[in-house]
Amino acid sequence: MSQPVAYTGWQSEKSGFMGRLSGPGFAMVAAATGMALLPINLHSWSAALFCLPVSAVLLLLAFGRVMGLSADEWITLAVRHQIAVARKTNVFLSGAFAPRSNDSGQQPMDLPGVLARLRILEAPDGLGGQLGISHDPVAGTYTAIARISHPGLALVDTDKQNGRVAAWAAFLRTFCTEDSPIIRLAVHQRCLPDDGAALHSWTARHISPDAPAAAVTALSELMESAGPAATTRETYLAVTLSSARARLAIKGAGGGQIGAAAVLVRELHALHGALSSASLQVVEWLSPRKVAQTVRTGYDPEAQLMLATRNAAAQAPTWQGTEAGVEPALAGPAAAEAGWGTYQHDGAWTVSYQVRTWPQSEVYATFLQPLMKPRQNARRSMSLVYEPLGPRRARQELAREKSKRQSARYLRTKTGRDESEDERREAQLARDQDAARAAGQGVVRMTAVIAVTVTDPAELETACAELQADAAASGLELRRMWGAQDVGFAASALPLGQGLPDRRMGF
């Protein structure tokens, strides 16, 4: 039997204007240097009494850290948040409480914050059904969402485990081509208490009329006692197409949203073989009502029981009620408020985290398993977001990374400073990645965002502490998304494939 493969080599993205300094940070260092030299040029002690403290404050803002962020970034976030609070743009109201427009008399968009611009489109899936597509007209993207099932890695032998991970890597590598229309892949998983509605509905439909009463009673008692203790996991795969990348194909398919939907459906059909090779089974591509349901249950955990019961009943041939899912116009929350460190929405409270540091040591393929352990007091959601890079851009990015590290090494040598083991390791890692790229491997940008949601605010900090402890067991370093909890919720708690920013500070 082969040995289990260990994985390492995550390279943090660094996008500072100069070294690790951002643009404002570099400007503050330059200003601090000028202020420190000004008294020397003026030959004035009185000027020094004013300039030197100002220079020290500027340097503290440039190099200081607050809650894991540089001081200037933290101040920017704090000011932006306070402006939003003063203007009440951090509060969202919908439904009966939504303010009405004086011009049209219509209520505003159903989704808050960064999701307000999204539209849920409907397109034929090529198999006789309807496909729900999340369209972002600002970014020019179209996203389809699949509910998938997978056999997992924990209870299989080493050969199968290695094969499944290699197949997933091969699946990602197929998108690392020049001008691929698919610009983003996101895997989203939720771990939530199982309400037992589907089990009860299935049992009610399949119990034989002549079954012994004692057996029926025993079965009912067993479900009542074991059902609430169970948990369920939902896994989704979001595939995002860029209209800019696929403009020629879209034009050939008729242009506009219809052409973009046709091109996306064509790409989705091409994925099935690669997904099967990775032991991933597409249960269904979500319809517009199913897409809306995933959003609705993300904002309102209490709706999970009602929707699960109704969806299970809708499977009966004689069902005459509302069809499964949620009307897209009702997908969003009735009310939501973004705080500095929390996000409140429809009777629930969520805290979102971003993975800032991946394991530095070698880990096995199951290292993320502690993060999705069942919890009775909270539900957890995690999104892994991948953005494949084409060969040309990958070569440029890795060459730039090597040049930065070589320049830093040269400066350290000239100034007589010793090179730390961390810096030596990062330089070797950059060379290894470039060698792997040259050998035909793909390069992707990747991040992970995690959310923990509770319905009792008294349990929120306990749930957060448990999540951070499990992250530490996985070798991850999490950072609470201070001042951006609404954005973090959209990326971590909803399977809409919200992507990476163009540049990520501090990586």
Automatic annotation (TrEMBL):
Residue ranges, compositional bias (Basic and acidic residues): 415-424
Renumbered residue ranges of the record's region Disordered: 393-424
Signal peptide start-end: none
Compositionally biased spans, kind Basic residues: 402-414
Alphabetical UniProt keywords: Membrane, Transmembrane, Transmembrane helix
Xref: InterPro entries: SCO6880-like
Segments passing through the bilayer: 21-38, 44-63
Protein name: PrgI family protein
